[in-house]
Structures are given as C-alpha cells and as structure tokens.
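Dear colleague,

Following up on yesterday's call, I've attached the two folding results inline so they're easy to grep. Please treat them as preliminary; we haven't cross-checked anything against experimental data yet. The first protein's sequence and structure tokens come first.
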Amino acid sequence: MHNAGMIPTSFEAEQRAASEGALLQTRGDLGALAVTGKDRLGWLNGLVTCEVGKLTPGGGAYGLAVGKTGKIMSELWFLAAEDRVLMGLPKDRIAVVREHFDRHLIMEDAEMSEPLDQAFVLAHGPRAAEIVATARELGADAAMIDWTGRRDAAVILAPEGQLDAVLARAAERGGVVASDEAWEAIRIAWGVPRAGVDFDDQTLPQEASLEKVAVCFNKGCYLGQETVFMLEKRGHAKKKLMRLFVEGDEPVPAGAELAQAEDGAVGSVTSAAPALDGVGWNALGFVKYKHAVVYKALTAAGRAARVMGSAGELRKAG
C-alpha cells in the first residue's frame, strides 16, 4: 500500500506507457459471445446504442444494451470478423443480455453462441494500433475501439492459450501491463466510468456520461432509443457523473457526500484515487444537473473540492 496522496513510483512506468507506448489491461471479468448469420449486423444494430450495422471485418465499436426505459443493461464491445461478430461484455451480464437479445430474435438469420473461452486485453496509448496488428498476427481478434473518448484505445480478444504470447509481443512494442491500483488511478483521472462502481442498471447513458462514446444519435431505431434520444434532444439528466478534484491527502471514500454551500447535498462520490501528480485526489461522482458545471466549488466529505468536467469528456492532448 502507498501513503495517502502519494503515487508509487511504479505508476510512473504505467503513465509513461499510456502517453508514449501502450498501457495494457487484462480483463478477466469480461467474456464474449459470437454472433453469426447473414442478418447479424442489422439485428444487433436494432438492439444497441452504437452503430454496428456498418461494421466491416477488422472494425469495432463500443456501445450499450439498454432496456425499454433507456437504463443501461450492459456495456458492450464489438469486434467484426469475416463471418461473425464478437460481442464482449462483463461475464456477470452475459446471461441477462443473451436472454434479452434472444427475445428479440424473430425472423432474422442470426445466432449467438455459448460464451467463448478467450481472454480480453485492452490497450491504451499511441502504440495501441501496433499492438492490434501484432495480436492479429498471433490469431487474435483485435480492433481500435474508442471506448474511453481518448481516441487511442484497442480491444484484443486472444485465443485460448495465446494470452501470454500476445502480452509478450505487446511488451516488445512498448506495452506495459497495468496493476489494478494503477489503472484505477489512471481511469479516474481520465474520467472513464467503471460498470458496477460508477454506474449500474438503474443509470441512463447520459447520467453515466457515456453518451459521447457509446451512443450514436444518427442511426436507426433500437430498443430503448426513444428515452435516450428524447433526453438528449429535449431535456437533460437530473444528475451527471462528473470528474472531481478533492484537496487533501486522506482517502476519499466511495459514497462521500458532495455538497454546496447554499444548497446542501448535491451528489455523492462513486470512486476516487490519488491524483497522478501526487497532490490531492481525483474522483468521479454524481452531481445534480444544476451543479454539474466546470470549476464549480463543492465539498467532498467536508473537504474542498471542485468539478473538473464531465466524465468521458477528457480528450487526449495533441
């Protein structure tokens, strides 16, 4: 463990990899389904928030499955191959998503397979595209998928037994595997929400600040579109996941109250980690719409804090 407010020196290599090479995550919590059949793209496109219908082999997309009320059922990563689409999602959501999709399979020529025994690696950084090419040489499915909003993320689905080989080849191209602790600090600084921590199945895409990276507002109809579209075009979310900076060295607990002097409680922290420069804490938290304003002064668990922007809006510099 590190001292409160201080970043271990090991984080430096991981931050450098994200800015100069590639920061890698092995995601054992993710699984995949294969979707086959000539109608697979059109069928999937009517069930998810992102544009899947126009994917070509080697392409990918990040989106959400939402229910009729627009609330998030699961986040999804799509990788298109010649004869199938691989759909990545949290393992604990596979059963519910599969049942949900099956209910809407009527006349289409499409079929979902049993979960695949393959390993997920997510890559972030300027050399992510090189790692995609390398992974494909080893037989993996891989694609550049901008799921963080930083335009430099890739998703790799390694075949059974090939994970170590993919990671070894990635290391030759500047890849560094992130520890859980380092990734937590980095993703909070970047404003990348974590399913089950920063949002759940009671959250709308706009509340989770995922609409810019996971929702296409110019595609055809999909289940739950009406709520998501109307909220975007004719209203606003009552609360929004925002990036926050909290002063002080002590940890900021999840659930800590966010307050504003005149209005009292205006939200709560969902996750927090020491700032990457070792000064203060970065956090994500839901803030009422009125107070979800950049540089808005708040308190977090009684400590000085300020709103830094919407989660998912932090773009890669340069």
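Below is the second protein, in the same order (sequence, then structure):
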Amino acid sequence: MSISFMPCVDDPASNTWRALSGRTDPDGFELNVSDANGVDLLLALGLPPEPVGSPRPIDAFAGLVTAALRRHLGRRSPERQPVTEPGDGRATFIPCGRREGYIEDRLGDLARLIQRSRAAGATHFGWG
C-alpha cells in the first residue's frame, strides 16, 4: 500500500477535481510513499494521519510544507532498521525500514512538486 501526494485543479463547472497529468512534466506530478512513511510525512506536516485527504488550497499546503521544513532544520529523522514480523501460520511481514533524513528529503520533494504544480496551473493539493 502507498500514499500519493498530488496536485489537482478545481473545476467548479463540473464540481470535480482533476489531477494534473504527468504528460506536461517529465518528472510527473506525484509523490508516492509507503503507508508508514506517508503517515509520518502527514504528521510532520501537522495533519491527521488519514490515508485520504480532501484537496487543500495549494498555498495553504505549501505553508504546511514550509513550516515543517523549518521545524526540521538542523535535525534529521532517525533511521529505522528493517524488522521481520513472523505471522503465526500467516504471511511474514517485513517493514523495510528507512534511512536517516528520509522525511526531510520527502518534504523537500513536496516543496519542489508544489512549485512545478503551481506553474502548471494546480489550485489544490491532496493525497490518497
């Protein structure tokens, strides 16, 4: 499972959200992370750790990212070692861990994605 952060455009005429197409940007308009990393990223942004979020105005979302980056200046999120969780008679679950500073790197990725998305006409940012 994963959580994708993506820009979208509000279409008031049809009362729908339209995701930006990756065809207009070679890097694509999406940041995809695992569920666990997505929850930690949402918490770093000061948002509830819900797997789906209603699109927020892009300026408000950019403010959350900027504030999170400032709070993390001079410190790195800790490394998480891989762990094997054997399931008694069930599948074995192996959280793969993550390297030190991963959350700060993804916050930087979000900041750059917001800039590219604004330039492409995005009005909101959501996740799911």
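For the second protein, one point worth flagging: The chain has one domain: 2-127.

Best wishes,
A.L.
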